Amino acid sequence: MAATSTTTSFTKSHPNVELENEESENLSHECRELLLYLPKEKGWDFPYFYLYQDIWYPPTRIQAIISFQKHFQAKDNDIIIASLPKSGTTWLKALIFAIVNRNRFSPSQHNHPLLISNAHDLVPFFEFNHYGNNQQIPDISDLPEPRIFGTHIPFHSLPDSITKSKCKIIYICRNPFDHFVSFWLFINKVIPPSLPKLSREEALERYSRGANEFGPFWTHMLSYWRESKVMPNNVLFLKYEDLKGDINFYLKIVAEFLGFPFNSEEESNGVIESIIELCSFEKMKELEANKKGEFMQKYENKNFFRKGEVGDWVNHFSPGMQEKLSKVIEDKLGGSGLSF
Ligand code: PPS
C-alpha cells in the first residue's frame, strides 16, 4: 500500500484561514498550503491537530512526514519499529537494539550503550529525529547496518520505498485501556503552560473520537494488523501484554523474524536472559541516562518510564468510562480479528 498525497477531506472552499503564527513557523510553503485545507481539531500538547492521511498530527509532524515520504530510501535490511506512542516503544527499541548488536556489544558488558544512553537516542524516530529537523534532509545513508528506525506513523503513510522493500517492520500494540491511561498521563506532563491540562473525561472523549496525536488508535493499529496478515514475513505484530507475559518466548520470535536467531550456545549461555535483564523496566528506569536528560528538548527521559504494568487502567477508569471505551473498541475493532 502506498502513501497517498493528502487526506480524505480536501475542501478548497473552506480553508483554515487562521493558521496560527507559532504553528506556521519553520514550515515549508508546501506544508503551509496543505494545512490550510486539512480538517482541524483542538490539540492536546499543541494548539491544533490536522488530519493528514486519516491520522491527526501537529503541523511540525506533518512537515516531517512529508519530507520522510519524499526522501527516505530504504535498504532491504532496514529494521523499523512501529507503534502508537505509549505502547512499549522504548522497551522494544531497547530489545531490538540489544538483539541485533549482540556481537558488537555483549548484553552483559558493563558499558553497553543501553546502560549509558536512552533507547530513543540509539534508535531515533523518522518523524521526530531524522526528518524532524525543520526542512533539512538528513544524510542517513551511511548509518551502521542494519539500520534501526522508530516510527509512530501508520503503515499506510510509510513511503513506497519501505513498503515495497524487504525491510522488517515490527509493530507493538497495547490494550487501549492501558494505552489511554499511559498516553493521557504522559501528555499532561508535557503540555506547555499556555495550554490547559486535560481531565481524564475530556481526554477520553477525544481519544474515543480518535482525536489525539497519531489517532484514531483503531486506524493505526488496523493498518499494521492487516499488513501483518498479508505480509507476515515483513510485518510482525506484537502486543505489549504478550511480551510482559512471556518475554523469553517473544524475544526468540523477534530475533528469528529479524534474521538474528539465537543459537543453542547462546541459549545455554544465558544471552536471552541477559538481554531481558538489560532491557527490563526496573533496570532501565534506574539508569542515570533515563533519569536525566530530555528527548527533543521537550520530553524528559524519566517520563518514558512510569509503571510498566498491565492493567493499571482499573485505577483510573470509572464504570462509565469503561463502558464508553469498551463500546468504541467493539465498534472499531470488532470483526477485525484484533482483540485484547
Ligand atoms: S513512547 O513515548 O512512545 O516512547 O512511549 P512508549 O515507550 O511506547 O510507552 C511508554 C510505556 O511503556 C512503559 N515502559 C516499559 N514497560 C516495560 N518494560 C520497559 N523496559 C519499559 N520502558 C517503558 C512505560 O512505563 C509506559 O507505560 P506506563 O503504563 O505509562 O508505565
Descriptive report:
- The structure is a single chain.
- The protein is of the alpha/beta class and 340 residues long.
- It has a single domain (75-332), classed as P-loop containing nucleotide triphosphate hydrolases (Rossmann fold, 3-Layer(aba) Sandwich), CATH 3.40.50.
- 44% of the residues lie in helices and 10% in strands.
- The protein has 18 helices and nine strands.
- A hairpin with a 3-residue loop joins strand 8 and strand 9.
- Residues 83, 85-91, 178, 182, 279-281, 284, 304-308, 312 line the site of 3'-phosphate-adenosine-5'-phosphate sulfate.
Quick one: overall form? globular
Question: Strand share of the residues?
Answer: 5-15%
Strand tally, please?
A: 9
What assembly state would you assign to the polypeptide chains in this entry?
single chain
Which segments are poorly predicted (pLDDT under 50) over 5 or more consecutive residues?
Answer: 1-13
| Order of the strands making up the biggest sheet | 5-4-6-7
Radius of gyration, whole Å: 20 Å
CATH topology heading:
Rossmann fold
Mean pLDDT, all residues? 92
The class by helix and strand makeup works out as alpha/beta
Helix content: 40-55%
Named CATH architecture: 3-Layer(aba) Sandwich
